[in-house]
From TrEMBL:
Residues 43-70 form a coiled coil. The lineage of its organism: Eukaryota, Metazoa, Chordata, Craniata, Vertebrata. Gene3D superfamilies: L1 transposable element, RRM domain. PANTHER family: L1 TRANSPOSABLE ELEMENT-RELATED (PTHR11505). It comes from Pleurodeles waltl. Keywords: Coiled coil. This is L1 transposable element RRM domain-containing protein.
Length: 199
């Protein structure tokens, strides 16, 4: 009889220990579940904050590039050893711009490694103007006078934007043929603001 009571006591103690272990495991799981639920609840807010920060970062990058102008189609080595003097001459003689005062640049250089350049696809030249007004004048003149050529090569000009803004602009520009075919008026304003009428 005493042996049976001892066995029951041991079994009861083992069961109590198991129950205590289960309770501890359940408590741990409950805490982890609460943490996951809290994370899920805050994720939309974090996504909105991240989206807002990305937008601000893109705007700051676009603002930092507002004095830059990109030139496409200028043959490699055409600029010689003094790229700033070459560009000043190009703007006067081929774009017909009479600057006052003469254009000043913070920096001018080709974009990308030289080994990737070719006669059919020369590297772009990017110029950072000292005066924002002169950068805008170059872009507006190029748009009004296009096409502009240099020794038989068509020269194109574009404002300089962040990668995200360029992607947004390209996505809209891809829609232009469809908008024209539907006789829908549209506009693309810097940096990437779209206006569509008749919708």
């Amino acid at each position: 009889m005493d042996l049976k009571i001892t066995d029951l006591t041991l079994a009861s103690s083992s069961i109590c220990a198991d129950i205590a272990g289960f309770r501890e495991t359940a408590n741990n799981l409950d805490q982890r579940l609460s943490a996951v639920e809290d994370h899920i609840a805050t994720t939309p807010d974090q996504e909105e904050e991240l989206k807002s920060l990305r937008a601000k970062l893109t705007e700051l990058e676009d603002r930092s590039r507002r004095d830059n102008v990109r030139f496409f189609g200028i043959p490699e080595q055409k600029e010689g050893s003094d790229i700033k003097t070459f560009l000043s001459s190009l703007l006067t003689n081929h774009f017909g711009i009479e600057f006052s005062p003469p254009p000043e640049f913070q920096r001018v250089h080709r974009i990308g490694p030289s080994h990737k350049a070719s006669a059919n696809k020369p590297r772009p030249i990017i110029a950072c103007f000292l005066r924002h007004e002169q950068a805008r004048q170059v872009i507006s003149t190029a748009k009004a006078r296009q096409p502009i050529s240099l020794d038989g090569h068509e020269i194109r000009v574009a404002a300089d934007f962040s990668r995200l803004t360029n992607d947004r602009r390209r996505a809209f520009l891809a829609l232009r043929p469809q908008l024209r075919s539907l006789d829908i008026k549209y506009g693309l304003f810097e940096p990437a603001r779209h206006i569509i009428d008749n919708i």
